Amino acid sequence: MVTSNSFIQRKLHTYMGFLCGRDRTCGNKVNYKCQATAERAAIAMSKKRGKEFDCYNCYFCKGWHIGGAQHLTIRTALRIVLFWFLVRTATEIKYEIVDDDLK
User: b/e for 7-20, b at 16 or more Cβ within 10 A?
Assistant: First the structure.
């Protein structure tokens, strides 16, 4: 099954890709021009490797890529966003302290 058939799954996967960054989300992956082609490739890869794969719309290049199926729920996505925000905030505070020390 390709979970990207669900609108919510597609949007969550795209947003999580944004949080992970371009290298991890887009990187060296094949860029499929349409969802249908990416879905067929995901199904073929799932059969070949015995693991579920999913296609997703890339936030950065706007193409379609294949990655491990996420099965994201809104609750899981909110927890990831909260963690991302906390790590980013902690990093910004760290740099502010260092910058103040240099003055």
Answer: eebbebbbebbebe
